[in-house]
Amino acid sequence: MHEDLDFVIESGTKKPADITIYALSTCGFCRSALNFLRENDIAFKYIYVDKQSSQVKVQIKKDLRDNFEERLGFPYSVINGGEKVMVGFKTEKWEKAFLT
Question: Which sequence spans correspond to the domains of the chain?
Answer without folding.
Answer: 8-98
